[in-house]
Amino acid sequence: MTTVLICDDRRSVREGLTRVMSAVPGVHRIDCVAHGDELLTRFSRQSVDVVLVGTQRAVPTGVEATRRLVAAHPQANVIVFGAPDDSGSIAAAIAGGARGYLRWDASRPELVAALAHTLASTSVPAPRTPSDSGVQLTERELQVLRGMAQGKSNGQIGRELYLSEDTVKTHARRLFRKLGVRDRAQAVAHGFRRGLVS
């Protein structure tokens, strides 16, 4: 059974995430805090398997909460939630120790599936880098990955690159396989960690 701690200063976000998490099989307890100080105190006092931290553009509280928690508790499994076009906050949170991220605009089925996968493995796995595995992404695959990091849909990426949506999906599947990841969130988190996207 898994325990989850949600940190965000917006009550509506905390309540929304609690509703979604309650639909994920295996979740035993869901607690919420509003600020980084509360997060550190609660994490220190009780066993927590996964921490969900909300981020906002130009508001450093979520990123700072992630950094402080991971600095004090390196074993903490932190997943950040952010706007799809807020690559700055997402990159900063990943650099601060978050294991991965999910987009705010992910559909409910996508969100539940991603959270279920994260909880099943307790953390988002850190994929091998292309240099570690001897695999290099093609320029087209890098372009698709960068589009994902900017929160663009497959259709939007295709229009910018003059490719069909099916072709973009093919490139996405190939880069997922090369990087050893399962979905867009893990691929983008990997890209931020390794400097493939910014």
From TrEMBL:
PROSITE patterns, per database record: HTH_LUXR_1, HTH_LUXR_2, RESPONSE_REGULATORY
Keyword Transcription regulation: yes
Pfam families for this protein: GerE, Response_reg
Domain Response regulatory: 3-119
Segments forming domain HTH luxR-type: 130-195
Alphabetical keyword list: DNA-binding, Transcription, Transcription regulation
Entry keyword annotation includes Transcription: yes
Source taxon at top rank: Bacteria
CDD domains the UniProt entry points to: LuxR_C_like
Annotated InterPro entries: CheY-like_superfamily, Sig_transdc_resp-reg_C-effctor, Sig_transdc_resp-reg_receiver, Tscrpt_reg_LuxR_C, WalR-like, WH-like_DNA-bd_sf
PANTHER family given in the database record: TRANSCRIPTIONAL REGULATORY PROTEIN NARL-RELATED, TWO-COMPONENT RESPONSE REGULATOR
Protein name: Response regulator transcription factor
Organism expressing this protein natively: Actinomycetospora endophytica
